[in-house]
Amino acid sequence: MRAVLLAAAALAGLTTAAFAAGDTDPFMYFTKDQAFATVAVPKADGSATSNIVSNHDDFSASIVQRTVSGKAETHEFYTDYLVVVEGTARIAIGGKVNGNAKNPNGAAGEWLGASITGGKTYDFKPGTMIVIPKGVPHQMLLPANGKLHYLAFKRKG
Fold first, then answer.
1. Can you tell me the distance from the alpha carbon of 3 to that of 114, in angstroms, rounded to the nearest whole number?
2. Neighbours of 146 (CB within 10 A)
3. Phi/psi at 141 (nearest 5 deg)?
4. Distance between CA atoms of 101 and 113, rounded to whole angstroms?
5. Structural domains of the chain, with CATH
6. pLDDT, tens digit (0-9, with 9 covering 90-100), for 122-133
7. Residues near 106 by Cβ (< 8 Å), separated by ≥ 6?
8. Is 82 exposed, middle or buried (0-12, 13-18, 19+ CB in 10 A)?
9. b/e map of 44-73 (b: 16 or more CB within 10 Å)?
10. What is the dihedral of CA 44, 79, 20, 106, to 10 degrees?
11. What is the percent of the chain where pLDDT is above 70?
């Protein structure tokens, strides 16, 4: 319940700027099971599966499932707000990205690397919310056979 309240508070604060110009989304309602059913089929390469439920120039909201650790990421233009609903992981923040290269998705300002050296790690479990400012490297580290469901909000600026 606490995770849901944190997510709602984060979304309320973030959407103010996104919708200031009259930009709207359709009404949506998901139970937890419905939300995570939309990301239940893992990708062949094991990377995160996500369902973008709101996408605007300056803001997006996604439902995400991870079953393996991710690559080190840096977003030059976007701050990430993440709220864990199910599962556990560790998240490495800051430090130096090893093997940093432009993300092959082609999006401007998106970088991926093999790992992070010298960052700090935090437990990432249900009810945890973390804010990752733009430009700060981060990497999701899952335990063997782990599964993590979380909500991701991105804000430009």
1. 30
2. 15
3. -120, 105
4. 6
5. 2-156 (2.60.120.10)
6. 999 999 999 999
7. none
8. buried
9. eeeebbbbebbebebbbbbbbbbbbbbbbb
10. -50
11. 85
